[in-house]
Write a structure and sequence with these properties.
The chain is an alpha/beta fold. It contains ten helices and eight strands. It has one domain: Dihydropteroate synthase-like (TIM Barrel). It is globular and about 45 Å long. It binds pterin-6-yl-methyl-monophosphate.
Length: about 290
């Protein structure tokens, strides 16, 4: 998989009662399907369907709950022609999701939570997104310590995940890596990572970045009393981040951006694309036009 010059846009479809970013708005499958269709119409390249909230402090759903949430939504969106990704840490959910039409398994634990997920990925031929992760969300912030520097640690730990993923039989051209913004990270760790994506790109895989609406943006925009900007009011900062990453300011190309408001981020990418070579630019003028 080679990175295009403009990143792909992955639209988030959280089928959860408690996600921090969209707090249960699409918990009902019918509403989640309608939301997914809307994101497709806004220009999403991939729809990421998840049934487990990973917001800091979240507790895990039962396996049966997670399956009930995601399988009907994946079936409907894949049937509507979407490229669907399943956001899960569980092998069984990954297996059922691929059977329902998902082509990408997005595992925020990079195979650490349920190592059998790697066998499912190898067997089914799915593309695998391995995110940097240290612990489940109820205790992950205890692990936000990086004595030798966050970039070196994330790079080394993702490198270990790549070894495990390869050992399970997943070919390199189906592996994508993700720095895991907000997962066992303090605000400054996230900024350090987005400024140094070149170090992660050196591992040799496409990169996916998910910064949309996260706490580090809320902290950046905190009010004079030190209160973080509420989650629903962080979109503009996330859009700015997407534009800067798409323009290459992360130090390496980004293959895909995981976002909530697809239309706003698409607009940002259209602006950033004005700095890429004309041949790669969507909407580049035909020869002779002015
Ligand atoms: N973040 C969340 C969930 N899934 N998957 C990947 N690959 N990368 C991320 O950064 C990521 C993810 C948490 O955000 P949400 O609650 O808004 O979905």
């Amino acid at each position: 998989m080679t990175g295009p010059s403009t990143p792909l846009v992955m639209g988030v479809v959280n089928v959860t009662p408690d996600s921090f970013s969209d707090g249960g708005r699409y918990a009902d499958p019918a509403r989640a399907i309608a939301h997914g269709r809307e994101l497709l119409a806004q220009g999403a390249d991939i729809l990421d369907v998840g049934g487990e909230s990973t917001r800091p402090g979240a507790t895990r759903p039962l396996l049966a709950e997670e399956l009930d949430r995601v399988v009907p939504v994946i079936e409907a969106l894949a049937a509507a022609g979407a490229t669907v990704s399943v956001d899960t840490m569980r092998a069984e959910v990954a297996e059922r999701a691929v059977a329902a039409g998902a082509r990408i398994v997005n595992d925020v634990s990079g195979g650490l939570a349920d190592p059998a997920i790697l066998d499912v990925v190898a067997r089914t031929g799915a593309t695998y997104v391995a995110m940097h992760w240290r612990a489940h969300s109820d205790r992950m912030q205890q692990f936000a310590r990086y004595d030798g520097g966050v970039v070196a640690a994330v790079r080394a730990e993702l490198g270990e995940r790549v070894a495990a993923i390869r050992a399970a039989g997943v070919p390199d051209d189906r592996i994508v890596l993700d720095p895991g913004l907000g997962f066992a990270k303090l605000a400054e760790h996230n900024w350090e990572l987005v400024r140094n994506l070149d170090a992660l790109a050196e591992l040799g895989f496409p990169l996916l970045v998910g910064g949309s609406r996260k706490t580090f943006l809320g902290r950046l925009l905190e009010d004079p009393a030190g209160e973080p900007r509420p989650v629903g009011e962080r979109e503009a900062a996330g859009v700015a981040l997407s534009a800067l990453l798409a323009a290459g300011l992360g130090g390496a190309p980004v293959w895909c951006l995981r976002v909530h408001d697809v239309r706003a981020h698409r607009d940002a990418l259209a602006v950033a694309a004005q700095w890429t070579p004309a041949a790669d630019r969507a909407g580049a003028p035909e020869e002779g036009s002015r």
